[in-house]
Amino acid sequence: MTPHFIRALAALFFWTCAAHAQLAIEITGAGAQRIPVAIVPFAGESALPPGISSIVRADLERSGFFRGLELPPIVPEPTEATNINYSEWRSRLADALLVGSVQPRQDGRFEVRFRLYDVVKQVPLGGVAYTLGKDQLRATAHRISDFVYEKLTGEKGVFSTRIAYVVKRGNRFELQISDYDGAGAETALASFEPIISPVWSPDGKRLAYVSFENKKPVVYVHSLLDGKRRVIANFKGSNSAPAWTPDGNRLAVVLSREGGSQLFMINADGSGVRRLATSSGIDTEPRFSPDGQWIYFTSDRGGTPQIYRMPASGGEPQRITFEGSYNVSPRISPDGKTIAYITRNPAGKFQVALLDLSNRQVQILTDSDRDESPSFSPNGRMILLATVINERGVLSAVSADGRVKQRLSTAAGDVREPAWGPFIE
Amino acid sequence: MRAFWYPVMASALLFGCATEDQKPAATAPVEAAKPAAKPQAVESKPVTQVQAAPRSGATAFAALKDPNNILSKRAVYFDFDKFDVKDEFKPLIEAHAKFLRDNSTAKMLVQGNADERGSREYNVGLGQRRSDAVKKMLMLLGARESQIESVSLGEEKPSCSEHTEACWAKNRRDDMLYGGEY
C-alpha cells in the first residue's frame, strides 16, 4: 500500500439510508484524507434504478477510504470498452476511475461490465462481467465495490457482508439480519422475551444466540437458510454466551448446571457437552482466537471482571487485562493481533478499548459512556458496537484506529447486540 | 419449547388439590436437557383435577397468594456487587424452605437479576450468583435440590427501568416463582 492509502485508512465508514432500510446513518467523526475516485455512471444503468454507480459510490464513500468526484455530463459516456485518456482524468483530480455498462439480455436478465483504472500510474486494474436479475442489483453493486476496494487498498472489502442485531420495541424483541449497510433487513426471530448474544457461525449460514423464551436463558443454533432452530444447550440452570470454534463444529458455552457460571464445550448439534475449566468465579463471554489455539474470556476469579485466556484444549488461564477494575467482552481481531473489549473508566463510563497483544498497549477508541458488545468487521478495519444515546439503544461503529465514528439508529426502538458476519465466499 | 414448561404448571396446579397420594413430581421437567419429552401426557390430565377439588387441599397453594402470608412475598434484594442474602430476607427464605419441605411436589424457579450496568453476559453471571445463593440457603434449610432451579435473567428483565441508583437497587433481585407462576 502507498502512504497515500495508509493515510486514507484513517477515515470513516458506512450505512446508507436506503429507501427500504430501517437503519439510518449519522457520521459523528471526521475522516482523514480520502482517495478521489471518478465513478462514472454506467452506460444504460437507468434500466436498474437507483443505478449501480450510485450504490458503489455510497459503499466506497462509507468505507472512509474514498471520495467520489462530482462529474459533469460526459458525451459520449465512457464505458469499459472506451479508450481512456488518462491525462484528462488526471486533470479532473481523479486518482482512480471506474467505468462500466449495463446491457439488457434477451432472457430478461442484465449484463453488467466494468473496468477500473489507476489514473496516477496510468494502468488498468481489471474488470469483471456479471449477469444478474433485477433483485441482485445491490448484491452485484456490493461485489463491484469489493473489487474496487481490494484493488486500491490491498485489503478485502466488507460490502457483501451482513450484520445481525436485536431490536427491542416495547416488549417485543426481534433478531434481525441485514446487509452491512442496514439495507434489506429481515427478521430471523421475533419473541416477547429477550434475545442476546448472537454469534455467526464461521460459514455465515447459522447464528447461535441466547433466548429467554422459556423464562431462562437457553442457547439455540438457528439456520438462516431454512429458519430451522435447534436447542443446543438447555440444561438445568442458565445456558448462555455461545462462541463458535473456527471450524464451526463446536461451541463454547457458559452453563450453571454444576453451580456458578462456567465454561463448557458442546457440539453444534447439542451433543457431547464437557467441562472446559473450573473456577470459583464467573467465567463467561468466551471467544476463540482465529487459529483456534486460545479461548479468551471474562472472569472475576481475581476479584474484579478481567479478560483472561487459556489454551483451547484446556490449561492454566493467564490474565490479559490489568488496567482498571472492569474489563469485559473480549473480541479478537481477525488477524489475532489485537483484542477489542469494554472497559469501565474511573468516571464509570463503559467504553471500547483495543489491546495490542504484542506490546500490551491499550487505546480507548470511543468517547461514549454505555458501550457494549463490540464486533470486528471481517477485515478487522472497523468495530461495530452497541451504545446508548438519548436513552435509546443504537449501533455505532468506530475504526480500529479510533479516528472515525459513525452511528446507526432506527426510527423506533432500541437496537443492541450487534454481530458482524463473516466474509461470504 | 414452550410446551416444555407445561408440566411444571401442571404439577403446580395438581399440587393444589392433594396433600397426599400424589406422584407427578417424577416428571420434574425443570431437571434438564430432555426438552419436550413428555408434555402431551401431563398437559391433558391435571386441568380437570384443579377445578375438581379446590376446597380443602387448596390451602397450601392458596397460602402462596395470600397477601397476609409471608409466602406471598417472593423478592430478595441484594446490595451492589453483593451476593449474600441479607438478614432481613432470612425469615422469608426460611418460610419458603419450610413450604418446599412440607410440600415435596412443589417446584420453585429462582430467577436472579442484575442491574443494567456493564456486560449483558457478565450480568447473566451476576444474576446466577444471586439465584444460586437463595437456592443454597433454601437447601440448607431442608428443601430438596430437585425442587429448585436457579437461573439468571441478567439485566434483561428489569422491574424498574430508570437509570438511577434507586431503580438499580430494585433490579438487583431474586424472584422466587412456583410452578404455574411463570
Report a brief summary of the structure:
Chain A is built from four helices and 30 strands. With 425 residues, chain A is mainly beta. Chain A is elongated, with a radius of gyration of 23 Å.
* Multimeric status of the protein: heterodimer
Helix content of chain A: under 10%
Write down the Rg of chain B.
17 Å
Instruction: Work out the count of structural domains of chain A.
Output: 2
Distance between the termini of chain B: 14 Å
Name the strands of the widest sheet of chain B in spatial order.
1-4-2-3
CATH homologous group name of the largest domain in chain A: TolB, C-terminal domain
- Beta strands of chain B, count: 4
Shape of chain B: globular
Please write out the topology.
The complex is a heterodimer of chains A (425) and B (182).
Chain A lengths: L2 H6 L14 E5 L7 E5 L12 H12 L2 E3 L17 H6 L4 E9 L5 E9 L4 E10 L4 H17 L8 E8 L2 E8 L6 E6 L3 E6 L5 E6 L6 E6 L5 E5 L5 E6 L5 E6 L6 E6 L6 E2 L7 E6 L5 E6 L6 E6 L6 E2 L7 E6 L5 E7 L5 E7 L5 E3 L7 E5 L5 E8 L2 E8 L5 E6 L3 E7 L5
Parallel strand pairs in A: 2-3, 2-4
Antiparallel strand pairs in A: 1-29, 4-5, 5-6, 7-8, 7-30, 8-9, 10-11, 11-12, 12-13, 14-15, 15-16, 16-17, 18-19, 19-20, 20-21, 22-23, 23-24, 24-25, 26-27, 27-28, 28-29
Chain B lengths: L5 H10 L23 H6 L1 H7 L5 H8 L9 E3 L12 H13 L5 E6 L6 H21 L7 E7 L10 H7 L1 E6 L4
Parallel strand pairs in B: 2-3
Antiparallel strand pairs in B: 1-4, 2-4
Helix pairs in contact in B: 1-3, 5-6
Can you describe what's shown?
The complex is a heterodimer of chains A (425) and B (182). Chain A is mainly β. Chain A folds into 2 domains: 34-153, TolB, N-terminal domain (Rossmann fold, 3-Layer(aba) Sandwich); 162-420, Neuraminidase, CATH 2.120.10.30. Chain A is 10% helix and 43% strand. Chain A has helices at 3-8, 52-63, 86-91, 137-153; strands at 23-27, 35-39, 66-68, 96-104, 110-118, 123-132, 162-169, 172-179, 186-191, 195-200, 206-211, 218-223, 229-233, 239-244, 250-255, 262-267, 274-275, 283-288, 294-299, 306-311, 318-319, 327-332, 338-344, 350-356, 362-364, 372-376, 382-389, 392-399, 405-410, 414-420. In chain A, the strands form 7 sheets. Chain A has a 5-stranded antiparallel beta sheet, with no helix packed on it. In chain A, strands 3-2-4-5-6 form a 5-stranded mixed beta sheet. Chain A has a 4-stranded antiparallel beta sheet with strand order 9-8-7-30, with no helix packed on it. The two termini of chain A are 24 Å apart. In chain B, helix 1 runs parallel beside helix 3. Chain B is of the alpha+beta class and 182 residues long. Chain B is globular and about 40 Å long. Chain B has 7 helices and 4 strands, in the order ααααβαβαβαβ. A 4-stranded mixed beta sheet of chain B has the order 1-4-2-3. The longest helix of chain B is centred in the last third of the chain and has 21 residues, at 120-140. Chain B is 40% helix and 12% strand. Chains A and B meet through strand 18 of A and helix 6 and strand 3 of B.
